[in-house]
Amino acid sequence: MLKKSKKIRVIPLGGLNEIGKNLTVFEYGNDVVILDCGMAFPDDDMLGVDIVIPDITYLHKVANKIRGIVLTHGHEDHIGAIPYVLKEFNVPVYGTRLTLGILKNKLKEHGLLRSAKLNTLEAGESVRLGEFQAEFIHTNHSIADAVAIALHTPAGVLLHTGDFKIDPTPIDGDMIDLARIGELGKKGILALFSDSTNADRPGYTMSESSIGKTFDSLFERGADKRIIVATFASNIHRVQQIINAAVKYGRKVAVSGRSMVNVLNAAIELGYMNIPKNTLIDIDEIGRYPKDKLVVVTTGSQGEEMSALTRIAFSIHKKINIEPTDLVIISANPIPGNEKAVSNVVNELLKHGAEVIHERQDNVHVSGHACQQEMKIIISLARPKYFIPVHGEYRHLCKHRELALQTGMDPKNIFIMDIGKVLELSQDSAKIVGTVPSGKVLVDGLGVGDVGNIVLRDRKHLAEDGIIIVVLTIDRASCSCAAGPDIISRGFVYVRESEDLMDAVKDVACGVVEQCTRGNTIDWSTLKTRIKNEVGGFLFSKTKRRPMILPIIMEV
Amino acid sequence: MLKKSKKIRVIPLGGLNEIGKNLTVFEYGNDVVILDCGMAFPDDDMLGVDIVIPDITYLHKVANKIRGIVLTHGHEDHIGAIPYVLKEFNVPVYGTRLTLGILKNKLKEHGLLRSAKLNTLEAGESVRLGEFQAEFIHTNHSIADAVAIALHTPAGVLLHTGDFKIDPTPIDGDMIDLARIGELGKKGILALFSDSTNADRPGYTMSESSIGKTFDSLFERGADKRIIVATFASNIHRVQQIINAAVKYGRKVAVSGRSMVNVLNAAIELGYMNIPKNTLIDIDEIGRYPKDKLVVVTTGSQGEEMSALTRIAFSIHKKINIEPTDLVIISANPIPGNEKAVSNVVNELLKHGAEVIHERQDNVHVSGHACQQEMKIIISLARPKYFIPVHGEYRHLCKHRELALQTGMDPKNIFIMDIGKVLELSQDSAKIVGTVPSGKVLVDGLGVGDVGNIVLRDRKHLAEDGIIIVVLTIDRASCSCAAGPDIISRGFVYVRESEDLMDAVKDVACGVVEQCTRGNTIDWSTLKTRIKNEVGGFLFSKTKRRPMILPIIMEV
Asked: B363-419 pLDDT, tens per residue?
């Protein structure tokens, strides 16, 4: 009885009201389990930032209770923050084979491969983590070996879908394990946490295998051309289908792009790929084969700077020159924010005369996430007491809530959560009982969290209008200006063409210095402020720009 | 006979291989006509740049031949560069009433209203410009009073569609003048220049009036709510339909957003709107009416920073507090690049409990541009000898070319042009005969063209990793360091939390200074370079970042 009275606490530290950095903390008594541990890409206003990871301040509070990290799949937004978390808490990590295979590449880069405690679980298996029993349940997604995770506790079962779709004809032959979800649902699921990404899309997501037919007809149509296909590196089922088409039409396959090579090697090594001998060739060997006997699989489906496809398009790829006899297939939709970059790549490829198949043309891409009908199937199958839509912006969570209501759920049992909120669950009740620190930690180079609002504000200021430095040396003895003021600018105007303006700035600065050093005393308190204000005001009146003004005064 | 032997030269200075800054130069003998004169919005990498205008270096070469600027419609990408051009060449401008009405607001801001020579033409009218006769032909677009322009010359007729769609049931009652285009086609059009924006969209664009039905049903559904509709300020037909729905349901209409107020005032003044008395109220008066008797029409349909809807969403609008009883309709699709901004606004509105209708939901928006079927109709009707797809990125121009081929055009009579290319046309021939200077001129504040590649490169560098300034004073007499080196950083790290790092940088700089000032001589040539390299190298090793290193050395 005592045990049953314990409550489960659920604390998302990422993945809600945002796309990315998924991390959810589950607590029961003295045990803490972390589900996923992802990164996010920086927003446009996070200048110079490489990646964003969740604020894990709260984990320090429960450090000695953490029994492990369980992973749903190997996408960056679910595993990308693991190196940063393991550096602070080297807890065991549990994932499927491919998930850990991809994670290993990442840990190697961070020098953590030896120390990390990685444990492989197959879908269908479970692991005990304190009072939690974590059960891996097979799902379908745009990466192989994805799982939902059921956390069994004495206070009830929690089901987290991870990212999923329902694919009745998947490439690996195994549909998401609806039977197990249904079984758990019949026994009673306390709370369901389900993927909201496509909550505003009606109907069903097409099967990954529908792409195979598309490739087949495109390969037939482009029989006399070299074919270049760009897609997400981690979508090995997509790559498998490209290889299938290549084999059918007697083409060799070469791979370009670091992440594509890495993931494919891991997938081959772990036995996830079915590639006939002598199909794969090295990118250096493509010259040895006729063009119409080649397929090149590349990264760059999002128009990423320096990705393989972008380098091909802008003629800076060392191995591949784009030609009018090339057929380029971009087998991906642009993620919001990448539309322009993809468009630029398409335009460049077309300018070289290549044929380009992209976006919604010809069904060259399907989503990895469930649409509305599938979401409702999961809710109806799981029949949870409580429902928490996860993995989406606020608008997606709201839509997912609407879908749950359509299945007959009680509105007061649905919780639209936010990161840092603490949801306390028991058989009889669910409520938000508090908040913990949460947010974005910015990673810039080796710095984790040392770029904050002040630094970003300065970068934005510098980016908009550049900097004007007013530097002078004051003679302490005579209280007069010993050198300068000199004016140095960066990112403001092209100085050679604006010498008059710079001379005028110097005059303004000289005027201020003169006034502040009258009578052999120096009005230190106002010297810097006045240089800043008067130079700034002068420049705004002349240019309607507001560069950062930085007065530097040395004493000798 | 002599006259006929003269050739027409066509030189686009903007609008090809890009969206925006449309400007095309037409030359015949001693006469030059400029068609449209627009601006573009800066790309993401043009940090701090306000707008982009075409490089008009070439116009200086033909300055004394320019007979005027003819305008197709009042959108920014067709009129936005006029103030900058008129400052250099105060040539007459010809446009329809609404186009000039909107232009006047712009000229006023630039202090050019008095000096500008504006001439109003109605669709159906013509004006003689040297040997050119410019004929205005009514079209449909997402702004009222749009025209195609036929340029009649002794060497043949050129037809430029401007931006258009074929709307058989437009709000102003007048379909695009297909009859006149057909008539010109029968007589013989030498070259057609046609809008390529939607060249990759099959079928037809829906009629603007289809939106009326959507508003009608949304207003009925939201009968107990305040309704806020965001749309493009210049789409006065859309605004008219919002007003129609408001009138039908007995609501007052208030307007928020500077450009919306400006355009609407111009449209009302010129008689383009049909608004019953006592329908429009001042935004300050909204408190006097019940919420369910109000409609607010706002700017911000693209999620623009500081636009009315964005201010409403983020609770910084002075007059409007968003509430759960609000229905917000975003009657526009996000322009590529604006998806995230719009999504953020939608999320914020939803968090306040408002209902939000947006994007492709419920048909709240239709395009102002023709789709493939309409494009083919124009080509088949105009039956031009030569065809030049305009107004689009390369991929759009290519698609438009394909459509022209489908209508039976000879591939060698279709020209995919680029800005700066000179196309020479006669009854018997068409060919690219050369290039002229062309490109992007960046406007930042009052500066036109003073922000170039070096400045942008510096801004990008500053934006990514900030700046480290190493400043010291050298005593000329003793050849020693009299003050400093001091280290100042901006946009690099938050200094208070990185004092150790900054101290270490100082040590590195001191070391360099010591080595370069040995034996009472100063190795000037290497001092700056070594500070730059050694401080830069040290920081990269410690942080994997590359801030701009700026050594400043003063002499006393």
From this structure: 889 999 999 999 999 999 999 999 999 999 999 999 999 999 999 999 999 999 999
For residue B201, give both structure tokens.
């969209």
Its domain, for residue A522, covers 453-555
Residue A30 is classified by DSSP as: T
User: Which of A361, A493, A556 comes nearest B483 by C-beta?
Assistant: A556
Nearest Cα of chain A lies from the Cα of B507 at a distance, in angstroms, of 18
Which residue in chain B is spatially nearest to A361 when comparing CA positions?
Answer: B200
* Alpha-carbon gap: A464 to the closest alpha carbon of chain B (Å): 4
The pTM assigned to this predicted structure is 0.89
Residue B452 has its nearest CB partner, among A47, A48, A494, at A494
Q: Do B490 and A498 make contact, defined as CB atoms within 8 angstroms?
A: no
Tell me, yes or no, whether A1 lies in a domain. Answer: no
Say if the Cβ atoms of A462 and B492 lie within 8 Å. Answer: no
Together in a domain, B198 and B274 = no
Interface test with B, best of A304, A458, A478 (most B CBs within 10 A): A458
Q: Given an 8 Å threshold on Cβ–Cβ distance, is B543 in contact with A446?
A: yes
A469 and B550 within 8 Å at the Cβ level: the answer is yes
| CB-based burial label for B504 (10 Å; 0-12, 13-18, 19+) | middle
Same domain, A345 and A242: yes
- Let me know: does A136 contact A126? Beta carbons within 8 Å: yes
Q: Spell B307-328 as b/e; 16+ CB within 10 A means b.
A: bbbbbbbbeebebbebeeebbb
Same domain as B358, residue B374: no
Domain tally, chain B: 3
Residue written as tokens 């159906």?
B124
Tell me the C-alpha distance between B483 and A231, whole Å: 57
- Residue to substitute from A344, A442, A490, A548, interface B, most B β-carbons within 10 A: A490
Q: What CATH number has the domain bearing residue A537?
A: 3.10.20.580
Would you say residue B485 lies in a domain? yes
As averages over each run of 10 residues, the pLDDT of chain B (556 residues) reads 72 95 97 97 90 96 97 97 96 97 94 96 97 98 96 97 96 94 97 96 93 93 95 94 96 95 92 93 94 96 93 95 95 88 94 89 87 96 97 96 96 97 95 95 88 89 93 81 85 79 89 79 80 93 92 87
Q: How far apart are CA A492 and CA B249, in angstroms?
A: 54
